[in-house]
Amino acid sequence: MTGSPRAEAPLLLDTSPPRTLGFRDQAAFWTNLGVSLIGFQSAATVLVFNGKDLSLAASVTAIVVGTVIGSVMLGVAAVIGTRAGAPAMAILRGLFGTRMSYLPTVLNIVQCLGWGVFELTVIAMGADALFGGGPHWLYVVLAGVLTTAMTIRPLGAIGVLRKYVAVAVGIAMLFFTVELVRHGVHDPSPGNWTGFLPAVDSVIAVSISFVPLAADYTRHARSTRSSFWGAFTGYTVSQVWCYAVGLLALLQVGGDPDRIFSTFMGVTAGWLFFAVLVLREADQSFANVYSTAMSVQNLLPRVDRRILTIGLGTLVTLLALLVTDFSEYESFLGLIGAVFVPLSAVLAVDFYFGAGRSEGGAARSASDKGGGGRREGGWDLGETAPTRWLTLLPWAVGFVVYQLIAPAQLTGWADFWPSFWAHAQNVLHVHPQVWTSASLFSFVVPALITWALTPLLRRGL
């Protein structure tokens, strides 16, 4: 059903979404999400491996390869969202059953809250650089208010991003690209490709963080073609561009991500274009807060999303005022990849080849009374969808594969984590090499296992 241009996202989970977003809306939305202040800083995870710089060619290639792989996963998730017409975590009812879908839902809530807090902090850091200091707490509060306001009318916010913000961001990115290239580009370590695949993994981890959010927006797409190509092209072009600009800026400050904002501000009239990038960073926090609300609705389907987004926006703002240590950021990315890379593999294979492909009887509308008696192919997305225990197996195996290759280097209360996986590596005689990719292996292995289990999965096991 096609909604009017003024239609907004449903307030409750059991309401059919308006299909108002075309290719340009999708492309502009994902283009904006692909450019971020975090992305500029994250280029440091590509540039340096084990304390040694990669060559410029290796770094750029890792950015392109990692982004394309992550964007394909994003595009597949986007298509599933369009076909199912449901938010991302509600779709997992079909994969795991309703009650078992609560597990990835809680993990996604934690992820989105973490990203939301980090984004507000980065916006405040950008404002600090822009104004030469000032009341950090005020920047956080203003960013939180803007973020929360955007979540109340999410489709309207996406419309504003398409009409105005995407153009302004494109101009700012072009300006910084030209200026940074004019200042010269040097190769930090010519010919060094050692650490190429870990660099690819770090880029995929950032891309994959949007996979469990994609359907929250693409369920409003008019067609699967527009949702796939909008997400794939928009995110690929913008993230590659963002990382490349971040790489150029890092090379001018000795690879120190803490000084990267000063590079942008040091360019003539750079403050003006940097202000555009700081202001538009709110689309990142908007996406995380709104998707947190969509995840919570999988647990509480009859709670008005506006109440959820206002409450969650307030919570994220308060946490951003209290949390100041983000030293675990790179390890956080590793855990995100370990959870959601294999999950995306199981989701895609079961949807296209397993139970999602089988005939499950007549489809019932998502607006059926009772909070979702919807059925997509052979997938039951209703509140009473039975638990499918077998789908947990490939997901768990994929998580283990990822951690055996690239265990998250957690510290503090979780300092047992890397030592546990180091012991497991010794016991299992698994010794990762520079050519082993945690993301690729943890995607392919659970995908093959899920495909092998397809006859059983089609029977609803």
TrEMBL record:
Keywords: Membrane, Transmembrane, Transmembrane helix. Its main location: membrane. It is found in: Membrane. The chain crosses the membrane at residues 29-50, 56-81, 102-124, 136-152, 164-181, 193-215, 227-254, 260-279, 307-326, 332-355, 392-414, 434-457. Belongs to the purine-cytosine permease (2.A.39) family. This is Cytosine permease. It holds the Pfam family Transp_cyt_pur. It is a multi-pass membrane protein. The keyword Cell wall biogenesis/degradation does not apply. It comes from the Bacteria. InterPro entries: CodB, Pur-cyt_permease. The keyword Transmembrane helix applies. Residues 359-380 are annotated as: Disordered.
